[in-house]
């Protein structure tokens, strides 16, 4: 990559990071392009040159958020810690992320997701679910996940959760409960880690 392209990528990343930071704190509706430009130390024209519109910028920020969060998750999944510790670390990361997210940004994110963003659907199908299956298989091999429950049943359960969470009446209420729902997903209603 030549120097011009590298500088352009750095500038684009700075804009995405500034927008994400502001959206996480204040929501999508309350943040202007001028505020994003100021935080990213670029002109408003530069933002429009890269993203064309605020809507496109928001879309790119959502992709950036998913990919950045996934990098952290991949580090956990690739670590040498026990499967149960990986699950705890993923839950803790999810709690930290949701505690920092503005409800308006979360609602906007979910509304876009439920309207069928092809990128997110493809990312889940091709990247997240295969890694989740690997984690489940690893846990079963180590005796940390109940081997009597099929991967098909686990994935079906996760799909049911995803479909319910895509309903507007649900996703508007779910953010404060996300850590507890994640614990239920991994540990069931007994409320404690599988030993």
Automatic annotation (TrEMBL):
Residues 32-51 bind DNA. InterPro entries: Homeodomain-like_sf, HTH-type_Tx_Regulator, HTH_TetR. The keyword Repressor applies. It holds the Pfam family TetR_N. Residues 9-69 form the HTH tetR-type domain. One of its GO terms (molecular function) is DNA binding. The keyword DNA-binding applies. Coiled coil: none annotated. Keywords: DNA-binding, Repressor. This is TetR/AcrR family transcriptional regulator. The lineage of its organism: Bacteria, Bacillati, Bacillota, Bacilli, Bacillales.
């Amino acid at each position: 990559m030549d120097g011009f392209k590298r500088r352009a990528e750095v500038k684009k990343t700075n804009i995405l990071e500034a927008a994400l930071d502001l959206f996480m704190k204040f929501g999508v509706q309350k943040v202007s392009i001028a505020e994003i430009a100021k935080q990213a130390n670029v002109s408003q024209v530069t933002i429009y040159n890269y993203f064309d519109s605020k809507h496109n910028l928001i879309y790119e920020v959502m992709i950036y958020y998913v990919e950045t969060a996934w990098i952290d998750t991949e580090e956990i999944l690739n670590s040498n810690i026990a499967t149960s510790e990986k699950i705890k670390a993923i839950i803790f990361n999810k709690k930290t992320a949701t505690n920092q997210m503005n409800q308006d940004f979360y609602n906007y994110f979910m509304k876009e997701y439920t309207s069928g963003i092809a990128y997110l659907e493809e990312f889940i199908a091709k990247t997240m679910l295969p890694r989740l299956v690997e984690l489940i298989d690893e846990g079963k091999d180590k005796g940390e996940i109940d081997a009597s429950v099929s991967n098909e049943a686990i994935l079906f359960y996760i799909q049911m959760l995803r479909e319910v969470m895509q309903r507007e009446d649900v996703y508007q209420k779910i953010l404060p409960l996300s850590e507890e729902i994640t614990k239920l997903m991994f540990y069931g209603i007994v409320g404690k880690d599988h030993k």
